């Protein structure tokens, strides 16, 4: 197991923001992964989301399959936030990185996007009391992740020498998503132990919690390193391709995967994105001594290229 940098957000109180910001920035540069605690989110928010999600995954297959994941809503074809259920082997993380013909993933998922914050939205949840409780639990968890991601990115603006509202003004309408995931233990009939194939995230940052081992990251030497946390209310945070591009690749979007182990595993992952009209252009701090590696791009274009690959849709011009 590797020891990731641990960032205690409580340490940023009392005039220590610059120190914590530098710790986060250093972790983004050296590993692309770090752990966040001291975030102030009630443990019950995590426990409710995990327990109600586990109850959902324990439902008969026919009930879950009646709530198939959709990747757009009435608000427009460009909303790729996922909503609903996806079964074992229905997705392939390798595809997200542009690799074709690779095996699919042994993971079940139940997903929501920003619309879960609006109780009036018609979303695919079970139409019973436990379904209503699951919706409330994922709503609370989603809101908590928005709070934590906002705090982490605000601190990063200090290290990046940007206005404090730089990320806030570019992510306030983003199609963020949350996926509650269930990995079965290794089973004899499975073709492999691939819970989720090797990939990088397309995010600004990703916040993940878990209740057991299985997550691995690939270090700079190419070795796969086990990552785990002692409690489900510790966030494992990683940099995504969006932040890597914004930082002129100074911040590392680290490949990672999930291997099945000898017991089931749950995780909940939150993907923090950017507004469709946000222009992704290298931060000035990282272009003073070398030129920008990428041309500026609207986030909408950047995102659709990746999501079309993940969901097997024809690429758009």
Automatic annotation (TrEMBL):
<dbReference type="GO" id="GO:0051213">
    <property type="term" value="F:dioxygenase activity"/>
</dbReference>
<keyword id="KW-0560">Oxidoreductase</keyword>
<dbReference type="Pfam" id="PF14226">
    <property type="entry name" value="DIOX_N"/>
</dbReference>
<dbReference type="InterPro" id="IPR005123">
    <property type="entry name" value="Oxoglu/Fe-dep_dioxygenase_dom"/>
</dbReference>
<comment type="pathway">
    <text>Antibiotic biosynthesis.</text>
</comment>
<dbReference type="InterPro" id="IPR050231">
    <property type="entry name" value="Iron_ascorbate_oxido_reductase"/>
</dbReference>
<dbReference type="InterPro" id="IPR027443">
    <property type="entry name" value="IPNS-like_sf"/>
</dbReference>
<keyword id="KW-0223">Dioxygenase</keyword>
<dbReference type="InterPro" id="IPR044861">
    <property type="entry name" value="IPNS-like_FE2OG_OXY"/>
</dbReference>
<dbReference type="InterPro" id="IPR026992">
    <property type="entry name" value="DIOX_N"/>
</dbReference>
<keyword id="KW-0479">Metal-binding</keyword>
<dbReference type="Pfam" id="PF03171">
    <property type="entry name" value="2OG-FeII_Oxy"/>
</dbReference>
<feature type="domain" description="Fe2OG dioxygenase">
    <location>
        <begin position="174"/>
        <end position="274"/>
    </location>
</feature>
<comment type="similarity">
    <text>Belongs to the iron/ascorbate-dependent oxidoreductase family.</text>
</comment>
<keyword id="KW-0408">Iron</keyword>
<keyword id="KW-0045">Antibiotic biosynthesis</keyword>
<protein>
    <submittedName>
        <fullName>Isopenicillin N synthase family dioxygenase</fullName>
    </submittedName>
</protein>
């Amino acid at each position: 197991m590797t020891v990731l940098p641990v960032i205690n957000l409580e340490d940023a109180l009392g005039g220590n923001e610059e120190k914590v910001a530098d710790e986060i920035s250093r972790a983004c540069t050296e590993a692309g992964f770090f752990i966040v605690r001291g975030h102030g989110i009630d443990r019950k928010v995590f426990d409710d989301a995990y327990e109600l999600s586990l109850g959902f995954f324990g439902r008969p297959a026919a009930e879950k399959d009646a709530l198939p994941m959709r990747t757009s809503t009435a608000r427009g074809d460009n909303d790729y936030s996922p909503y609903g259920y996806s079964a074992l082997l229905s997705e392939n993380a390798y595809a997200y990185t542009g690799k074709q013909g690779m095996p699919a993933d042994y993971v079940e998922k139940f997903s929501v996007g920003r619309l879960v914050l609006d109780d009036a939205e018609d979303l695919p949840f079970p139409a019973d009391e436990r379904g209503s409780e699951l919706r409330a639990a994922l709503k609370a968890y989603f809101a908590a992740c928005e709070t934590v991601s906002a705090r982490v990115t605000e601190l990063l603006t200090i290290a990046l020498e940007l206005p404090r509202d730089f990320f806030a003004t570019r992510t306030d309408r983003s199609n963020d998503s949350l996926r509650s995931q269930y990995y079965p233990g290794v089973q004899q009939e499975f073709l492999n132990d691939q819970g989720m194939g090797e990939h990088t995230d397309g995010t600004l940052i990703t916040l993940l919690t878990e209740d057991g081992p299985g997550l691995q990251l690939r270090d700079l030497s190419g070795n796969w390193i086990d990552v785990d946390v002692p409690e489900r209310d510790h966030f494992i945070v990683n940099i995504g391709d969006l932040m890597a591009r914004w930082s002129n690749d100074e911040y590392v979007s680290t490949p990672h995967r999930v291997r099945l182990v000898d017991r089931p595993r749950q995780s909940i992952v939150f993907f923090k994105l950017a507004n469709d009209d946000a222009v992704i252009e290298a931060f000035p701090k990282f272009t003073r001594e070398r030129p920008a590696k990428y041309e500026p791009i609207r986030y909408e274009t950047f995102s659709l290229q990746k999501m079309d690959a993940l969901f097997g849709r024809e690429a758009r011009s």
